[in-house]
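Work Package 4 report. The design task specified in the project plan requires that, given a folded chain encoded as structure tokens, an amino acid be chosen for each position. We show below one input record used in the internal validation round.
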């Protein structure tokens, strides 16, 4: 996804897991400034929808905590990223297929599907 000169990338790992493995689930967001000037990528405004419903756990995670300076002023040609490893049980609430969609203002990334099975 691009927002002016910002390219966003959302990744999850793994995309197939069991209920007990949710504690090992990781979700990462990266922003790259492809422009010629420093910009604020406004990452704190990114919303994550899980099966069409906005995640409150994601909103708290993306908006809070210590961030490096590039999180709010990204120099040209540079990338800033963060990985969260404690959101698995909040995002993936039980067995099934979960569709994760990231939105920032009016832009939206392609959905990512994660499959959670009850047993291995």
């Amino acid at each position: 996804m691009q927002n002016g000169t910002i390219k966003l990338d959302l990744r999850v790992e793994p995309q197939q897991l069991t209920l007990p493995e949710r504690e090992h689930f990781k979700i990462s967001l990266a922003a790259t400034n492809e422009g010629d000037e420093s910009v604020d990528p406004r990452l704190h405004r990114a919303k994550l929808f899980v099966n069409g419903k906005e995640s409150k756990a994601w909103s708290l995670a993306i908006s809070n905590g210590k961030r490096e300076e590039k999180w709010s002023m990204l120099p040209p040609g540079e990338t800033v990223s963060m990985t969260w490893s404690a959101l698995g049980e909040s995002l993936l609430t039980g067995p099934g297929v979960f569709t994760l969609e990231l939105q920032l203002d009016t832009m939206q990334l392609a959905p990512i599907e994660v499959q959670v099975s009850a047993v291995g």
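The radius of gyration is 15 Å. Validation will be extended to a larger panel in the next phase.
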